[in-house]
Amino acid sequence: MAIKQKITISSIKSLTPDVERINDSEIPGFHARISKTGRITYYFYYRLNGQQANFKLGTGNELTAVQARDLAKQKAADVTKGVDIQAGKKQAKEEAKRRYHLRLDRYISENYLPFLESRNPKTANKIYRELNSSFKEFMDFDIDKITPFQIEKWRNRKLKEGLSPTTINYYLNTLKGALSRAVDWGVIEKHDLNKVKAIKKDNTVVRYLSIQEEARLRKALRDRDEEIKQGRESANQFREARGYELMPSLTALRFADHVEPIVLLVMNTGMRKGEILSLEWEQVDLLNRNLTVTSENSKSKKSRHIPLNGEAFETLSEILKSTKNKKFVFESEPGIPFKDIKKGFSAILKDAEIEGFRFHDLRHHFASKLVMAGVDLNTVRELLGHSDLKMTLRYAHLAPEHKAAAVNLIG
After folding, report:
1. What residues contact residue 255 under an 8 Å CB cut-off, 6+ apart?
2. Buried b / exposed e across 293-332, counting CB within 10 Å, b at 16+?
3. Residue of 44, 43, 42 lying closest to 60 (CA atoms)
């Protein structure tokens, strides 16, 4: 049922759901509806090209009866002048739709992630997770509203929390890359994050193991291996006494699990973590004593061949003895390689009393030992898979005792 009456604050207050609608007695087309729950909505009906059109003025929560009345008068005047009063509304709707996809979390999941997957499926999810975890506080920001000042504050906070400059620069460059792609696609006109400069750091100093540290690391690896083997034997004795099925014995194997051989191989090949964890047996040539890092798994996107020295060859040969029809050299499950060895490696470092050392530093250790042994930098560059010699020059800074030995040759 509808009634005709001037729409005022008092008439709206007296409106009940059984009335449903009140048509204003003074402004043609202006009316208010009430839902069964008591929600008030104001409308303005008018004719456009001979057809009846409806314009929603707003709800009772947004407008008072007086405000709705004034707005209805304004829209009636615009219609008389031939103004399309729906145009602004359509524009606002389109803008709202566009901005919906500008929110950082939606942009990286709906636009950027599919792009990353098309480029490199192996690293796409890693970059996606890093963006989500590193910039969690910005996930509900529109990407064109993230300012350099906000990122500067984020960077300074991360420094205080102890995050390394290298890691902060990496995360920052990842975010810049995502936003730059949005500019390329025309999603946003521009972004100003290039104004946030990278933290300057000294790349000439690298962390590698001293002779004493390497000895302690190797001992910790052996001790851990023996502990695992003894644990398996003890468990089997327990199972045998109770008639349970025994687990495979580890006593005859050189390595109890994957941690020690991975560390030894990186120390002797300089492979990156991702390269060694994704290493497949078809890339290993024990006959000719070399292995191949494929372009798909290489950071430089170029394949390279690494000769196997004695320890690397023996390590792979021992692993092969316990490998049956495996695709990857190091598998957590059949056909699935290990994703990380962070927990095991951290425990080894603790047992060896080695501080300030990361898994990636094993690669630095490999390179530093080569340089200290007199290997030329270009050969080191080729073995490491660096595309630019500038990256390899950091290893020209050798240990003080090595420099002393060199100058003493002419002393």
Report:
1. 225, 261, 315, 318, 319, 322
2. bbeebbeeeeebebebeeebbebbeebeeeeeebebbbee
3. 42
Of the candidates 322, 320, 221, 218, which has an alpha carbon nearest to the alpha carbon of residue 279?
320
- For CA atoms 369, 382, 326, 125, the dihedral sign is positive
Quote the CA–CA distance of 268 and 309 in Å, as a whole number: 7
User: What is the SS3 string spanning 49-118?
Assistant: CCEEEEEEEEECCCCCHHHHHHHHHHHHHHHHCCCCHHHHHHHHHHHHHHHHCCEHHHHHHHHHHHHHHH
Q: The pTM is what?
A: 0.57
Give dist(CA 100, CA 92) in Å, integer. Answer: 12
Q: Distance between CA atoms of 140 and 131, rounded to whole angstroms? A: 13
Quote the DSSP letter at residue 186: T
Give the model confidence (pLDDT) of 261-308 as tens digits.
Answer: 999 999 999 999 999 999 999 999 999 999 999 988 888 788 999 999
Supply 392's token pair. 């390899």
374 burial via Cβ count (<10 Å: 0-12, 13-18, 19+): exposed
Under a CB-based contact definition with an 8 Å cutoff, are residues 326 and 281 in contact? Answer: yes
